[in-house]
Design brief:
- This protein is of the alpha/beta class.
- Helix content is 25%, strand content 16%.
- The chain is elongated and about 135 Å long.
Length: 1924
């Protein structure tokens, strides 16, 4: 009906709408008119979406309250003002000295503020629009964290300057506040004042006062901050968990724990416990409002603030809730108690003795006379009324306190909704918090629209208040969103607000239409009067139909007092029970059982049976049937085998690696911490044992024993501390081992260790996780990484979490490189899928509730009001099961005494084994959280089973966390037969080993602890879970018990083909059901991520098969399987899994067993991270030995990802249609059916407007609380990462949470660098993921200690120089100069990296007819070079990722020098060839300045110090090392500390100018030589050229400098080392000569330090006579012949020792990009200089995939097209319109000649007998063309060419030494080709003329070319011609 006003909502103020709505309600003819509110605030408001999205703010600030219209509506209490002294100013806004204090007047004036004082704004009632400026000592104001201020006051007047006001009363008089009420600083000091950008004083943030007497905001600090509690709290913070009434909260706190005074947090949390209860779907009439009321997220339930525990103040004589010494006598002594109390605004819990549980709640803020609770209240009302304290003061209660419960939840909700978000402060003073009157009125409307089976939820109310506030301020908000707010925005005209005088009338009016469901009582004087009236009405029975009583007292002052009593039996019971903590709940149930209160319930049940007592009926049945019942369970089994396929695994390592250097660890060790559950413990031990991880990590060797494996799994019980200490000690003793502490089921125990201090005597396990995992040793150990693993991470995702959001891994990852994580036929069936099953047209949905059971529970609840509903529910359900067993066993009259659902479960349980030849059956999980009730249920059901002679039909198992599994001998024998176990002592230890056993598992414990259930689970009966106090964690945890993988592609119409049943490899883990295999390994860097492998490298998890819900056949199957009769008329066959995906399966049933696959033992299936449980696919094979317990596990190499055996062929025989269906076959088809309490069922199925399930928006965990009411709602589309960020912003831990104090310590961001969080849905595969993580982490560490080095044999060995000269002295450590001079130079290149280079010919070579060019196909040119993986020795060179203590200083962290402290020095020298002066720059760190000489006055760099030839220091390397590098700032191996074995050495990095900054950043302690900018695009030739020229210039400078010191020039050390940036290790060959003349020898190679090699070479006699010294390139297949000769006269590469003195006149070609070392070697030799290679030393080169020559990319200069440029396009005709390329001309030339030189030299192709003559240079013409190098220099050594005829001539930039006469010495074939290369066309013509080339060579115009460069890039030109 309120629709006629709908159009007005957009423009009308809220109060106006309210009046219109009430008026419309009065005129309505409907019996229950629907208030317009329910449309307004219980439905999603689309137009507010953007506003809601913008309300994500961190903190809310208190807004003005209680002012304006609210306070003026009734006369205030008179307050006697002191008269002002005579003659003083009394003007408003001025002080008594007459000085103006108004902010608008003095905002720009300078104000002297003493140190420690702050400027604040005070509000005067007489000047509401002005702020008065005051200076107040900040100690008396709240600090930044919102902590309490000191009591008292200290302030100064900023007007007259008067100081020292010690009382706020005195100060308020001085500044003329003219108060009519008691002056209080909290009420009148409102805002901090701050200066804006212009320096003007402006209104700043609100001062956030805290206190029970004020309506203040309740954020994280106000409810939990440590400073709010007395010192006691810091030591014994608070037992939040036991007091928080949430199922799933830790039950670790002791029963009967003593309270530590009223300030104990137990009081805080008990009173403030989690949300009361949940509204499900309402009646159709209320469907829409109820649905939308679910939009709200829950709020923290802690309300109010605990007062300090100082001396008690004067109070009423009765019990003082604030007095720490309050007597305990108010509660009768008892085992448990329910006294809820608030400190200053909360209830307090008084300990109870042995008399009984005291459900008493005592009020806090009390005034007036106490209200007496009637003695017989509970007896008359049949429920304990729950009184919610609302606004104002609350009276004392006395008398029968056991029969009422008082809760501060509503009070907290009101207070939270009074705080206005900081995001809205900009809207100015017009934005007021919602008024108290409006809050109460909205509450009444909310209660009116609740259905009879709904319970009020504080979160709903909170969202209603928020929406109401937004609606009422919509105009301002929109106005300020569209334009910047003006300085003083006028508030819009306000509609008159609801006044306190109008409130009772309006509330009564609102409640008048609800059939007395809500009753309003108006009081004249105080709430006590209204409460007394309510108790009177209750006793008189006048409130029988009333669910809620609203009591309003609006007479005093302008404020209102209110409370709301819940008197409805259903609602009151649920709300009162929801306020119990799990520990209290267990205590109360235990007390009821022990004291015999339940006997009356049993007596009542016995009257059910028409024939009298059920037990008598059972006895009669037993006698009649004794001896006639035989077991119909038969067992048959057969053996076949299948191969488990395995899937890709995740990889993770710490992404926050700044404090975790993986390179410093050598191996991985681990400890898995699990909750104290014996089943979980055995499950995890089995997991670890069979995953192979211990073998892979090298922690254990075969054969492993179970005792050894148990060392790696820690059960967190009382004995855990000893084992954990050993783990920590082990980590201290092994600093190079990385210890991974895995905290599985990490949401389980988050109680702070401070709580342990309170309860250490009674329960040593309280706070154990915090004490162990968060101890200082673990936090500070650099080699311990903590990995929290949980399906419910919410409590670890708060504002105070230690885990960085970057260290969270959500498994499985949503992105898997475009690959489906699971095979298409597999589907994870979790909570959302269960919900979908109720919507997708299933004939019988998988989530159900039992209406007849609920109806009976409700009826009995009214009959037995003193019994806890958990007791009633358990007894009713057990009775239903007993009656159902009797009905199925032959007593059909008992069907009327059970429910249809229970009967279905029992029929299926009993009938399923009869229909299977093997006797396989279902499991029924009966969840009984309360352990005493579970024991009662077990005893009762076992008794009924025994009387019905069903002991051998099904087992009943009591599953308790503290004990193992007990199974009868008969059933153990069956399990052993099914699983082919021969071990006589075997007993099932995990639920998974109960596969196929027909049984009822009574699963007790407040929380599941990660126990996995077998796939034969058919029914999950959760009707007994504690439905009244769920949070998201608890709800999802219970429903997670039923999570499975199912097969989504089972079309049953396909008939019977290969019925290879799949087993459930995944059900073996606490949080896991997937086999995993390592994915791709990391490259050895510090970071990796969890990633899913591709399908080819994945093992598919074996998962439950289930038919598609969309198939009609499967729907009928579903209904049939769920029905009470299981017929065998239809073949339940299904196709087998795809080939290669066969999984082990249980013994199938039916006549064709022989042709089916059989899995080995089903219980302990190999899963998660296990190497393939490779079961041979060829034949059944012999049974395994008993020690293996019939589990065939072949540990395959981790690199293998394929099944060990081929997949089985389809079965040979046909499947007979009459094959009876097996229970396990059915169970494997679909997930279990889940039965829920009605309340939970409605909660789970309810969704908000976005489709988000209501359950997801509950308070995430019992140990956290919301920070604010002003938070956006969760969205259905949020990813796990976004949800994590949401919770990190909007939740804070309670004081009892172990993260509560984490912000105070250590790092500024609060995150711990070595904490990770792995989360994922239940049973998704997390255990396998983290075991795989350990394997991959281990391999990663090994990988970090390994390196890929080039491993290639030397090439052209068969072309070695033929000579009579060999170096005969095999054992000489150094070459003999005279002998060495006689060894001819070997022109042939042997380095394998030049396999594609042109062969160099000489007269010594044997000319063979075949050419080596034939052996290599052109397409092989790009084949990857061969590498070998080598373990790094202790003498390796490292890149930037390596850090260790030894080289810490070397890398730049010297204590004497600041990091990055270095200086830039210019160094210039002239060089004639370049025609200009070269200016280089040195970057020299302070720590390396001793290597250089600086001029004394100016500090100019003069030279680099050089040692003497005669120096003999053993700790110094004489030769400076230069390493040219580009693009390898991270990966270059520049850390030579270990390679040099710590010896002093000078190392210079040669870098290009544009890379200077990045190299300096990564290598702050290295000397840099920066090349001039003209060389930015140059190749390695330029770097070599400049290194050599600089070194020679420096040698001359040093000679002249030291000559002055009397040292001869030839004594200065002339050698330098030029090393590649990829040289990683060095080796030496040890030779042992044997045999005649010592020509036979044996040799071995070992790793040595570079220091050893350098000192050996530097000690060589006559070393200065050698121009170039090098080492052999390492190869694993080094031949004996290669090391026989200790020295070779040949080419040297990569690591060379260069004599810059001897080679003064031979230069590197600065233009070269490739082969510049070969070119240089040839020119050195032709100059008559010696090149010596030490064959007994070798260098290993690391394969580095980035930088180096790869950094040169040839691209088009003009277009941005991504078309690849091929080498043929590198040259073009001059003056053509060819596309120019952006690359140096020399690079284009070299690349073109490498790939296309046959175009210029066609006769030379594969013609080694007639090579190309190359004058003065070596250019690579490709592998199929040979060259002969000659030098044109006079007196040069050249190969004899007189007999050779050349097929071509190459003249490259030839100088004046090349003349016509020189060329005429050589002979060419007819048709030989010529190529002349010059810098420009003019030079080209001059060269042709000068060399008289036209005499013998024929040229054509079209034979002229140029490199494809633009003119400004100076292309090279070349001319080709033919020999005449």
């Amino acid at each position: 009906m309120g629709n006629s006003y709908a159009g007005q909502l957009k423009t009308t103020r809220f109060e106006e709408v309210l009046h219109n709505s009430i008026e419309a309600s009065l005129r309505s003819n409907n019996l229950v008119p629907r208030p317009i509110f329910s449309q307004l605030y219980l439905e999603a408001e689309q137009k507010l979406n953007s506003l809601e999205g913008g309300s994500r703010v961190d903190n809310e600030e208190e807004e003005e309250e209680g002012e304006g219209g609210l306070e003026t509506s009734s006369p205030p209490n008179p307050y006697q003002l002191l008269p002002a002294p005579e003659g003083c100013c009394t003007t408003d806004g001025f002080c008594q000295a007459g000085k103006d204090l108004r902010l608008v007047s003095i905002s720009s004036e300078p104000i002297d503020v003493p140190t420690g004082f702050l400027l604040v704004g005070a509000k005067a009632p007489s000047l509401p629009e002005h702020l008065l400026v005051c200076a107040v000592d900040k100690r008396f104001l709240p600090d930044d964290n919102g902590h309490n201020a000191l009591l008292g006051f200290s302030g100064n007047c900023v007007g007259c300057g008067k100081k020292g006001f010690c009382y706020f009363t005195e100060f308020s008089n001085h500044i003329n506040l003219k108060l009519t009420t008691q002056p209080k600083k909290q009420k009148h000091l409102k805002y901090y004042l701050v200066r804006n950008a212009q320096g003007a004083l402006t209104k700043g943030p609100l001062i956030c006062w805290k206190g029970s007497e004020f309506r203040s905001r309740q954020n994280s600090a106000s409810t939990c901050s440590s400073s709010l509690f007395p010192p006691l709290e810091s030591a014994g913070a608070a037992a939040a968990l036991p007091s928080e009434p949430v199922l799933g909260a830790t039950s670790g706190l002791p029963v009967g724990a003593p309270q530590a005074g009223p300030a104990c947090d137990q009081a805080l949390v008990t009173a403030a416990a989690a949300p009361a209860v949940f509204n499900g779907k309402g009646s159709p009439k209320h469907q829409q409002p109820a649905k939308n009321s679910l939009l709200a997220l829950p709020r923290p339930s802690a309300l109010g603030v605990l007062s300090n525990s100082g001396p008690p103040k004067k109070r009423h004589k009765g019990w003082s809730p604030e007095s720490p010494s309050a007597p305990d006598g108010t509660c009768p002594p008892g085992g448990g108690h329910r006294a809820k109390s608030e400190g200053a605004g909360m209830s307090c819990v008084a300990p109870a003795g042995l008399g009984g549980p005291a459900s008493v709640t005592l009020p806090v803020v009390a005034s007036g006379e106490p209200v007496s609770v009637p003695d017989n209240l509970l007896t008359i009302c049949k429920a304990k009324p729950v009184i919610f304290k609302g606004h104002g003061t609350f009276p004392y209660l006395c008398g029968n306190l056991n029969d009422v419960v008082v809760s501060p939840l509503l009070h907290a909700c009101y207070q939270n909704s009074q705080s206005v978000s900081r995001a809205y402060e900009q809207y100015g003073a017009s934005v007021q918090p919602i008024s108290e009157e409006m809050q109460l009125l909205l509450t009444v409307y909310y209660l009116v629209q609740l259905a009879a089976d709904q319970v009020p939820l504080m979160e709903d109310l909170e969202q209603i208040f928020l929406r109401s506030w937004r609606e009422s301020h919509l105009t301002e908000i929109r106005q300020y969103q569209q334009a910047p707010p003006p300085p003083y925005a006028p508030g819009p005209g306000m509609v008159a607000p609801v006044t306190s005088a109008q409130l009772p009338w309006l509330a009564g009016l609102a409640a008048s239409s609800c059939n007395d469901s809500v009753h309003v009582i108006e009081c004249a004087s105080s709430l006590a009067e209204g409460l007394a009236e309510m108790f009177r009405l209750l006793i008189e029975g006048k409130l029988a139909k009333t669910n809620y009583v609203v009591i309003i007292c609006a007479c005093r002052n302008a404020t209102i007092d209110s409370c709301i009593a819940v008197t409805g039996k259903y609602q009151a019971r649920i709300l009162s029970e929801s306020l119990l903590s799990p520990a209290e709940y267990q205590r109360e149930v235990h007390y009821e059982l022990v004291t015999g209160q339940v006997d009356s319930l049993g007596a009542f049940f016995s009257t059910f049976c028409p024939e009298g007592d059920i037990d008598l009926l059972l006895d009669k049945f037993h006698q009649e049937n004794q001896g006639h019942i035989s077991s119909s369970l038969t067992v048959s089994s057969v053996t076949n085998a299948a191969a488990l396929d395995v899937s890709g695994a995740p990889v993770c390592t710490n992404s926050s690696t700044q404090n975790l250097d993986l390179g410093s660890f050598e191996k991985v060790d681990f400890l898995i911490c699990i909750p104290p559950s014996e089943v979980t413990y055995q499950q995890t031990v089995f997991h670890v044992w069979h995953s192979g991880v211990l073998l892979e990590l090298g922690l254990e060797k075969e054969p492993m024993t179970k005792q050894r494996v148990e060392q790696y799994v820690l059960k967190l019980d009382a004995e855990a501390q000893t084992k954990f200490k050993a783990f920590v000690q082990n980590s201290f003793q092994n600093p190079h081992t990385l210890f991974v502490l895995i905290h599985d089921h990490a949401h389980w125990d988050l109680v702070s260790s401070a709580v342990h201090n309170l309860y250490s005597q009674s329960d040593p396990t309280v706070g154990l996780v915090d004490r162990l995992l968060n101890c200082r040793e673990v936090k500070e150990a650099p080699n311990i990484v903590t990995l929290h693993v949980t399906s419910f991470p919410y409590a670890l995702q708060t504002q105070h979490t230690l885990i960085s959001p970057y260290n969270e891994i959500h498994w499985p990852v949503s992105y898997s490189n475009g690959v489906d994580l699971y095979q298409e036929s597999k589907k994870y069936f979790g909570l959302s899928e269960f919900i979908e099953s109720t919507l997708s047209g299933h004939s019988l949905p998988l989530l159900r509730y039992d209406s007849s059971f609920e109806a009976m529970v409700t009826a009995l609840g009214k009959r037995f009001p003193r019994l806890h509903s958990a007791v009633i529910r358990t007894f009713v359900l057990v009775q239903h099961y007993a009656a159902a067993m009797m009905a199925v066993s032959g007593l059909p009259q008992m069907k009327n005494h059970t429910s249809v659902e229970t009967l279905e479960i029992t029929q299926n349980l009993l009938n399923s084994p009869k229909q299977c030849p093997c006797g396989h059956g279902f499991m029924v999980l009966l969840r009984v959280p309360c352990s005493p009730l579970a024991a009662v249920a077990y005893e009762r059901l076992a008794h009924v089973r025994a009387r019905l002679a069903l002991e051998e039909h099904f087992e009943i198992i009591l599953g308790s966390p503290s004990s193992g599994i007990t199974v009868g001998k008969h059933f153990v024998k069956q399990l052993k037969m099914w699983q082919k176990i021969e071990d006589a002592e075997w007993r099932p230890q995990t639920y998974l080993e109960l596969e196929g056993l027909p049984c009822i598992l009574i699963f007790s414990g407040i929380d599941p602890h990660g126990e996995s259930l077998p796939r034969s689970l058919r029914y999950c009966d959760l009707r007994l879970i504690n439905s009244s106090c769920l949070v998201r964690t608890a709800l999802e945890q219970e429903l997670g018990l039923a999570a499975y993988f199912v097969s989504s592609e089972m079309p049953l119409e396909k008939g019977a083909r290969n019925e290879a049943l799949e087993s459930d490899g995944e059900k073996l883990s606490s949080t896991d059901n997937e086999d995993e295999e390592p994915g791709a390994e990391g490259e050895g860097g510090p970071e990796c991520v969890f990633e899913a492998g591709s399908p080819s490298e994945k093992r598919s998890p074996a998962r439950r098969e289930r038919s598609r819900s969309h198939d009609s056949a499967s729907s009928s199957l579903s209904s049939r399987a769920s029905g009470s009769v299981l017929g065998g008329s239809e073949p339940l066959a299904h196709p087998g899994p795809p080939l290669g995906e066969q999984a082990a399966s249980p013994t199938p049933c039916g006549p064709v067993e022989d042709s089916r696959m059989l899995g080995e033992r089903q219980g302990p299936r190999v899963s998660q991270g296990a190497p393939a449980a490779a079961v041979s696919g060829h034949s059944p094979g012999p049974p395994p030995p008993p020690s293996q317990r019939s589990l065939q596990v072949a540990v395959t190499p981790s690199s293998s990802s394929s099944p060990t055996g081929p997949p089985l062929p389809p079965m040979a025989g046909p499947l007979l249609p009459q094959a009876p269906p097996c229970a396990m076959t059915k169970a494997s088809r679909q997930p279990p059916v889940v039965f829920l309490p009605k309340l939970v069922y409605d909660m789970v199925l309810a969704t908000d407007s976005s489709g988000l399930p209501k359950a997801a928006s509950l308070l995430p965990a019992p140990s956290v609380m919301w920070t604010s009411s002003f938070r956006p709602l969760l969205s259905k589309t949020m990813t796990s990462t976004e949800q994590s960020l949401y919770y990190r912003q909007w939740t804070v831990p309670r004081p009892s949470h172990m993260d509560y104090g984490s912000r105070a310590e250590g790092r500024p961001d609060g995150f711990h660098p070595r904490r990770l969080l792995l989360s994922g849905p239940p049973q998704i595969g997390k255990t396998g993921a983290y075991l795989q993580f350990l394997s991959i982490l281990s391999r990663m560490l090994i990988r970090l200690t390994e390196v890929d080095v080039y491993d290639e044999e030397e090439i052209n060995i068969d072309l070695q120089e033929e000579s009579d000269w060999c170096y005969l002295q095999l054992t000489d450590p150094w070459p003999d100069l005279e002998l060495f001079r006689k060894i001819p130079f070997d022109y042939v290149i042997h380095d394998p990296k030049y396999e594609d280079a042109s062969l160099i010919c000489s007269h010594h070579q044997s000319v063979k007819s075949e050419d080596r060019g034939m052996s290599r196909k052109p397409e092989d040119l790009y084949v990857r070079r061969q590498t070998a993986r080598m373990r790094l020795s202790k003498y390796a060179a490292y890149n930037t990722y390596h850090h260790c203590e030894q080289c810490h200083q070397y890398m730049g962290f010297h204590p004497r020098y600041q990091l990055y402290e270095s200086t830039l020095h210019a160094f210039a020298f002239s060089y004639s060839m370049l025609g200009e002066e070269i200016q280089l720059h040195f970057i020299i760190p302070k720590s390396k300045e001793h290597h250089f000489v600086f001029s004394q006055p100016g500090g100019q760099l003069e030279s680099m110090r050089l040692p003497l030839v005669t120096d003999k220091s053993h700790e110094c390397i004489k030769s400076p090392t230069f390493t040219p590098t580009t693009g390898r700032h991270e990966h270059g191996l520049f850390n030579l500390y270990h390679a040099m074995d710590g010896a002093s050495h000078l190392h210079v990095l040669v870098v290009k100018e544009y890379e200077m900054a990045i190299y300096k950043k990564y290598w702050p302690n290295h000397i840099m030589l920066v090349l001039p900018s003209i060389f930015n695009s140059a190749g390695v030739g330029a770097a070599h050229f400049l290194i050599k020229e600089l070194s020679y210039h420096n040698l001359e400078l040093e000679r002249s400098r030291q000559e002055e010191l009397g040292i001869k020039p030839q004594d200065i050390w002339p050698f330098i080392v030029i090393s590649d940036d990829s040289c990683v290790m060095w080796n030496a060959v040890d030779v042992d000569c044997v045999g005649e003349r010592g020509r036979d020898f044996s040799w071995s190679e070992r790793s040595v330090s570079l220091k050893h090699i350098m000192q050996h070479i530097e000690a060589s006699p006559n070393i200065t006579h050698y121009a170039l010294i090098g080492l052999r390139k390492w190869a694993s297949k080094t031949r004996q012949s290669q090391v026989r000769e200790p020295f070779s006269h040949c080419h040297v590469h990569d690591f060379i020792i260069l004599n810059v003195d001897l080679t003064q006149n031979v230069q590197y070609n600065q233009n070269r990009f490739t082969c510049d070392d070969v070119d240089f070697n040839l020119r050195l030799h032709s100059a008559g200089l010696l090149l010596c290679r030490f064959n007994r030393f070798s260098v290993m080169k690391k394969q580095i995939a980035v930088g180096g020559h790869r950094s040169f990319h040839i691209t088009s200069k003009v277009s941005d097209s991504s078309v690849a440029i091929v080498p043929a396009q590198y040259i073009c005709a001059p003056d053509s319109k060819h596309t120019f390329l952006a690359a140096p001309a020399q690079l284009l030339l070299e690349k073109f000649l490498q790939y296309h030189s046959p175009r210029f030299f066609p006769l030379s192709l594969k013609n080694r007998s007639h090579p190309v003559l190359s004058v003065d240079c070596y250019l690579n013409l490709g592998s199929q063309i040979s060259v002969c190098y000659v030098s044109s220099r006079p007196h040069s050594l050249n190969a004899s060419c007189s007999e050779l005829k050349f097929s071509g001539l190459l003249l490259y930039l030839c100088d004046s030494f090349v003349g016509a006469s020189f060329l005429k010495k050589f002979h060419f074939l007819k048709g030989a080709t010529l190529c002349v290369i010059c810098q420009d066309r003019n030079s080209l013509r001059q060269t042709v003329v000068r060399l008289e080339l036209e005499d013998e060579w024929q040229f054509r115009l079209r034979d002229e070319f140029q490199t494809a460069n633009a003119k400004e890039d100076r292309p090279l030109f070349f001319l080709t011609g033919r020999h005449i």
